[in-house]
Design goal:
Elements (H helix, E strand, L loop, with lengths): L1 H29 L5 H10 L4 H12 L19 H10 L12 H18 L3 H10 L1 H9 L16 H20 L1
Helix pairs in contact: 2-5, 3-8, 4-5, 5-6, 6-7, 6-8
Length: 180
């Protein structure tokens, strides 16, 4: 009898913890925040899907503007300083002191980077994979018959991190689209 009661208590506790985790994540994902208007403005200007931008921000940083990865990527969209400099020069953005912890600078450069990737890869799937793994890596996968049969789309992604990243971004993009 004691074992049954203990089992029931543990089961109820785990279910409650799971529900709290899910509801907290859902609220965190769906909340309106101070970045929404700026994301919409920049996305519209650059002809990007704002739900894709929001999804990338959520997956990359969970909306933490001063996040820094162990690889040195910074801010909401987790931009590498070298990528920021390249986008600044490539698009003549004329940003003198690039502060990637500033949300406007980070979102602007991140969106220009997405625009850049969209000019290289017409498929959103490849754009998202490139955002995570890098343009050069995705191009090498497209040239490898083990990963791409036609050289135009990926049939297999060798990086588990990128495969999971794609799933998360696409899932959250669709959720944002559904909610907004």
């Amino acid at each position: 009898m004691r074992k049954k009661i203990f089992f029931i208590i543990i089961t109820v506790f785990l279910i409650l913890m799971f529900l709290i985790l899910i509801s907290t994540s859902f609220l965190y994902l769906t909340r309106k925040n101070k970045y929404s208007n700026f994301i919409s403005t920049v996305s519209d200007e650059l002809n990007l899907d704002k739900n894709l931008v929001k999804s990338i921000i959520y997956v990359e940083s969970k909306w933490v503007s001063d996040a820094v990865s162990n690889k040195g990527a910074i801010g909401l969209m987790q931009i590498l300083p070298s990528t920021a400099e390249y986008m600044n020069n490539f698009y003549n953005l004329n940003i003198d002191n690039i502060n990637l912890k500033d949300y406007e600078t980070n979102i602007l450069i991140g969106c220009y980077y997405l625009k850049y990737l969209k000019t290289k890869f017409l498929d959103d799937y490849l754009v998202i994979a490139s955002y995570n793994a890098g343009e050069t890596v995705v191009r090498s996968w497209l040239k490898n018959e083990s990963y791409s049969k036609d050289g135009k789309k990926l049939d297999n992604i060798p990086y588990k991190e990128t495969k999971n990243y794609l799933k998360k971004v696409i899932f959250n993009k669709n959720l944002y689209k559904l909610l907004y």
